[in-house]
């Protein structure tokens, strides 16, 4: 579990500003520490964090197992939306009232307020739903990039994915549907499977099947009504990824963005030699860093996603809003299997 840190700051008019943060001093053993917000520098902004989700990568960072780790002590959380309260004298692109999200991972969003460099955040429209804004920077970006950057997908083409009920999976379903792309969505069996089918199809899923169906002959019947996938998206690994590979058309791609099964992917030699399947990986944090000098790339991506949100074509995943004081319960729920709702800390 994490502990509270209470901070005081007097940003203007001598009004005492109270800040609560969730901080960990070492990996696997968070502890309570004290910290103060710095003054708002010329190129900085004071923000109030409005909402911040708990993602698997956040937990991995706390455990010390993620690919990038912040210096300790650190504030938890990599994603969220904040409102600008005050801007420094040299801040040009932001003003009080603007909504912003982090440009990169490691910013520390599990707190009620922060003083951040203007260059570390990017603005969003403040008329989109709060939960859509809070969960926009990681999973929808991942989904859009994977649907855009690996295969030239046209309306009527097919994408197959496992972990279809994950936040990335739900974004893939909706963005693909908006583009006229069919999706075959693979999920683990569960007691409420029929309910899950209905929910994913309401989002725009073309087909929803169980993991074991990937290995059965009846899947051939499905391909009589839709083309074999050009693109497979893998968030699980292990046997599930290998089964996805079997159904990708000649010359297609499988892109791995997660490994929930914590098992390696076995690629049949025939998939490489005879089908020329491209096996690749994607990490949205690296994409953002590769494009850190290209202001237009991130801006264009966020604008496209926000446009889909405004059109009602992209909604946030199912979320449970939790007060910051109940973070322990939220973390426990976030680590449970078959989690049906993303835990979001609401300040």
What does this structure look like?
The protein has helices at 56-63, 130-134, 139-149, 167-178, 193-203, 219-222, 238-247, 269-273, 284-290, 295-310, 327-334, and strands at 3-9, 17-24, 44-53, 74-75, 81-87, 99-102, 113-117, 121-124, 158-161, 182-187, 207-210, 231-234, 253-256, 278-281, 319-323, 342-346. By secondary structure, the protein is an alpha/beta fold. The protein has two domains: 18-135 and 317-346, Quinone Oxidoreductase, Chain A, domain 1, CATH 3.90.180.10; 139-285, 3-Layer(aba) Sandwich (Rossmann fold), CATH 3.40.50. The strands form three sheets. Strands 3, 5, 6, 7, 8, 15 and 16 form a seven-stranded mixed β-sheet that branches. A six-stranded parallel β-sheet has the order 11-10-9-12-13-14, sandwiched between helices. Helix 3 crosses helix 4 (167-178).
What does the secondary structure layout of this molecule look like, with pairings?
Layout: E1 3-9, E2 17-24, E3 44-53, H1 56-63, E4 74-75, E5 81-87, E6 99-102, E7 113-117, E8 121-124, H2 130-134, H3 139-149, E9 158-161, H4 167-178, E10 182-187, H5 193-203, E11 207-210, H6 219-222, E12 231-234, H7 238-247, E13 253-256, H8 269-273, E14 278-281, H9 284-290, H10 295-310, E15 319-323, H11 327-334, E16 342-346
Parallel strand pairs: 9-10, 9-12, 10-11, 12-13, 13-14, 15-16
Antiparallel strand pairs: 1-2, 2-4, 3-5, 3-7, 3-16, 5-6, 6-8
Helix pairs in contact: 3-4
Question: Which keywords apply here?
Answer:
transit peptide, fatty acid biosynthesis, 2 domains, globular, 24% strand, fatty acid metabolism, Quinone Oxidoreductase, Chain A, domain 1, mitochondrion, Rossmann fold, 347 residues, 6-stranded parallel beta sheet, 7-stranded mixed beta sheet, alpha/beta, 28% helix
């Amino acid at each position: 579990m994490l502990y509270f840190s209470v901070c005081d700051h007097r940003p203007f008019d001598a009004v005492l500003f109270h800040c609560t943060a969730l901080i960990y001093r070492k990996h696997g053993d968070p502890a309570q520490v004290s910290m103060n917000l710095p003054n708002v520098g010329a190129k900085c902004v004071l923000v109030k964090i409005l909402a911040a989700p708990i993602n698997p990568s956040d937990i991995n960072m706390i455990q010390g197992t993620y690919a990038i780790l912040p210096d300790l002590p650190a504030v938890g959380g990599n994603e969220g939306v904040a409102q600008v309260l005050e801007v420094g004298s040299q801040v040009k692109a932001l003003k009080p009232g603007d909504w912003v999200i982090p440009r990169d991972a490691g910013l520390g969003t599990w707190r009620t307020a922060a003083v951040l460099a203007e260059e570390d955040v990017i603005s969003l429209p403040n008329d989109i739903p709060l939960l859509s804004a809070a969960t926009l920077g990681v999973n929808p970006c991942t989904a859009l990039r994977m649907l855009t950057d690996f295969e030239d997908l046209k309306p009527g083409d097919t994408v197959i994915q496992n972990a279809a009920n994950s936040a990335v999976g739900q974004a893939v379903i909706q963005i693909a549907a908006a583009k006229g792309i069919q999706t075959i969505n693979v999920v683990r069996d569960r007691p409420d499977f029929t309910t899950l089918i209905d929910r994913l199809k309401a989002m725009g899923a073309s087909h929803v099947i169980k993991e074991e169906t990937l290995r059965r002959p009846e899947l051939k019947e499905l391909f009589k009504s839709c083309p074999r996938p050009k693109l497979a998206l893998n968030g699980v690994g292990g046997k599930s990824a290998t089964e996805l590979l079997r159904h990708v058309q000649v010359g297609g791609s499988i892109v791995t963005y997660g490994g929930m099964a914590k098992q390696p992917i076995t690629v049949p030699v025939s998939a490489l030699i005879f089908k020329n399947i491209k096996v690749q990986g994607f990490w949205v944090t690296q994409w953002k860093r590769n494009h850190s000098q290209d202001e237009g790339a991130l801006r264009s991506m966020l604008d496209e996603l926000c446009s889909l949100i405004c059109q009602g074509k992209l909604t946030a995943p199912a979320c449970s809003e939790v007060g910051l004081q109940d973070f322990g319960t939220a973390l426990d729920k976030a680590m449970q299997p078959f989690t049906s709702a993303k835990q979001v800390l609401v300040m």
